[in-house]
Amino acid sequence: MAEVQTSTNAGELTQRFIEFVLMQAQNAALFLGQIPNPQTGKGEVNLEVAKMFIDQLAMIQEKTRGNLTSEESTVLRNALSNLQLAYVEVAREGSSAASPEKSAPETAPAGEPAAQEPAADAEGESRKKFTKSYGA
Known about the structure:
This protein is mainly α. It has six helices and no strands. The protein has one domain. The chain starts with a helix and ends with a helix.
């Protein structure tokens, strides 16, 4: 009976993991307004929920470090960095739309380092630095 439980091949597990990552990323994109709400047909932004999904992907990346195939790692890394950039852009738009005369000068300098960090992150720096800055 143990043979039946361990007969799942690595390719199936890789596919399931990638599907899981993409489902989490799709949920984050939905709450970043990138995907229209199926009920209303309009993009809706909920940064708190989007941040939760992004943080979950970051946690999965940290907890699975060194245990993923190159394909799994690439999908997770790309999804996470794309969502982090989208989060920063949406948060910047939201803060400048709330009070343009006050937020615009303050958010531009603060947003520049956050936008640069994913490139540094791809070079191997810790993602923890980025997740701390985009949530601030």
